[in-house]
């Protein structure tokens, strides 16, 4: 197959200004409007259109032999208006193959394995997910601007990056699918490795450039993971069935390089999640808290050499915790007895840490924030062995010039097991009601999030929060900040077929 | 085989079509002007130059000045401002938002000057126009770099060969991380900018634009910091003897316009064009307790019934635990901001001559001129005053005259670097926290941050 695609997106933007009962026009003194002060005015300005384009050509070759061996090769060239003049195009090939081993003679009549397939692929993918126009340098023209001493000014407002290009990822994956005992048990194990270079990042550029940030291709990130899924029908009788689904996944990523930039080049808002070489994206980068000094109640921190110090210094920040869990997954059991059905889903996450970001304001230096009742466990007199340091209004007591400081005192285990769903249902078959014939009517009660087993001291170890910005969203998945807990609900459903 | 050839042919054809699509994919932002298109006419460069003045005015709007004051001995603890309190207690860290936003603004001056230089070639300037534009841009660049250097690095003389770290200097309009230069390299670079600009700046400019005397004033202050008193006095004399400036009678040089003693400053044209906004926001005291107030020591020093400058200071919340000493200098809706003025230059020359023990008659005259404006009855130095007496009085008048202008700290640091045994508000003049920490965005593999704290 050979194909092509052209995408031309134009977003037209308008700003509408509306006034009521105000004399005069919007932008300049208008004598006629003064004589008619009740005039209602509406003005609509057309802003600059937002335009982007993609041009693509692609081809695909598929080949199979005896429904046993499968081979597929693709190649595509993509061009995007978002990149610099000489870097608009990228070539992205891929190759994949499959082998249905159960069709081979050595497995064909196996009494246990009824299906077995090995699959592998390699491909290069591109990413152009950045705002438009980031490669262009522009100025704000004089007629839009204020002035100095009455003279109009022009100033550069967009830092040009003509070298901006496609982010490229080499992706490898392999999987093995199996069906056992005529698919009473099915399983799949898969693994992937993704090596991304020229990563598109919105970098915090040095302030000495006169700008705050811009998009650039920087560094290298790898992602890798293993996933396993098992489905089984444990009991299958005429009136009773029991089936189980289990899955577990381990996903990790690692920053291999960030060029000349520092850990702070990409930051997750005010939560001290950073980009540290050798660590996952958005790792917690914090000053280590040691203990509360039992004699004076001051917090004691650790410097880079592990020495105790009263001074909270950002230069002593180190990567701590695990932003990503070592394992996540779920276990579902479904039972059916006659017309009754019952199922429950247990969801779990192990091996990650959660940073409780609001704690520094609610359990630290006293400011205009409300304190949490955990603060009862604070140092109050010499000899106290307390979790939290003494109360103070003076930031220097905490070794800082600023009241809200990030330390790993606020980092907690994020392990939990949650009973996500419990469903109990009953199905009425074939009956008449109000002269209407129903084929099926199912009534079910679904309870969601009613039980959670965790040691996390905050509201909820399952974090679903709003973030400060899109970068923060990518960088701070393990941060809670006054985050509302997942809702608990009981829902009754009625499904009727007629 | 034929099919494969067809496929290859189609792919090749597609590639050819795509490469001809380059123009189709060149889509500049709508509603904005491309730099290379805008900067093709001399008028555009004049406007970019005005843009440099504009951002410079917004950076020297009181912020440059209050950072110097807060590190020094003149101020009391700020009122309800964590960022400025960090500066006051000399524990700035690289997350200080007030420093970071100001630092970015300051460096927009540098960026715009470098940016403009990328487009000079091929533009049809009038004779001398390009040289003058470059000279004004270089002066403003030098002004911001020198002020950064003073605030972010230990002073000239801190190490015998000035090999200690200064600031990063960008000579091109780029955003890549840049390493810091040594203080010697920074001084050499900034002096080079100014020496190159001096011949091409206007002889008699308006004070709101850079002229030769503005350049001489900055050079004089730099040479003073380098303890090159001869050179500093020479430059000061050129300014004083140009006869373009007079001290006038008003002891408050802050006002809606730049007054007769201002050599260079940033002008406001109205309340919506207020270039003194950070002065007014932080010092204005006629409607609230301001963020910034002065120490009791300062108030006691100025509270002299014979001194007209005492009227510029008052006590707020007198007799309460919240008693503060505030200034009335900035009780206005908008103000222009003097950067270099005759008082500064006359006292600089007087101090240089006193340190050199030469031209004491001129030094005494300079000090007495400032005193004559300040005091109601005669407290002038006698014509036979010694060099030490001149030095003491010149320094005393400098401190009072320039309270709030962010000057005194650097005088003390210079003296410390010259070997004088002095402390600044109970801390060594060269303790680490006596300089500001750079913004966190400067951190890179090649940029070394300042040590933090360590003053008290």
Helix-strand blueprint:
The complex is a heterodimer of chains A (498) and B (456).
Chain A: E1 2-11, E2 14-19, H1 31-34, E3 41-46, E4 50-65, E5 69-80, E6 89-100, E7 113-127, E8 138-140, E9 147-148, E10 151-152, E11 155-158, E12 167-180, E13 185-197, E14 200-204, E15 213-217, E16 220-236, E17 240-257, E18 273-274, E19 283-292, E20 299-302, E21 308-309, E22 317-320, E23 327-337, E24 340-350, E25 353-356, H2 359-362, E26 411-413, E27 416-433, E28 436-454, H3 470-475, E29 479-480, E30 489-497
Parallel strand pairs in A: 25-29
Antiparallel strand pairs in A: 1-4, 2-3, 4-5, 5-6, 6-7, 7-12, 8-11, 9-10, 12-13, 13-16, 14-15, 16-17, 17-23, 18-19, 19-20, 19-22, 20-21, 23-24, 24-27, 25-26, 27-28, 28-30
Chain B: H1 2-19, E1 33-34, H2 35-38, H3 42-59, H4 63-71, H5 82-88, H6 97-117, H7 129-152, H8 183-197, H9 212-225, H10 229-241, E2 262-266, H11 277-283, H12 296-302, E3 313-316, E4 324-327, E5 337-341, H13 342-356, H14 360-374, H15 387-401, H16 408-417, E6 423-424, E7 427-428
Antiparallel strand pairs in B: 2-5, 3-4, 6-7
Please give the share of residues in helix of chain A. Answer: under 10%
Principal-axis shape of chain A:
globular
Mean pLDDT of chain A: 89
Number of strands of chain A: 30
Q: Runs of chain B with pLDDT <50, length 5+?
A: none
The succession of helices and strands of chain B, N to C, reads HEHHHHHHHHHEHHEEEHHHHEE
Give a quick account of the main beta sheet of chain B: strands, pairing sense, barrel closure. 2 strands, antiparallel
- Please estimate the helix content of chain B: 40-55%
Output the radius of gyration of chain A. 30 Å
Structural class call of chain A reads mainly beta
Summarize the structure.
The complex is a heterodimer of chains A (498) and B (456). Chain A is mainly β and 498 residues long.
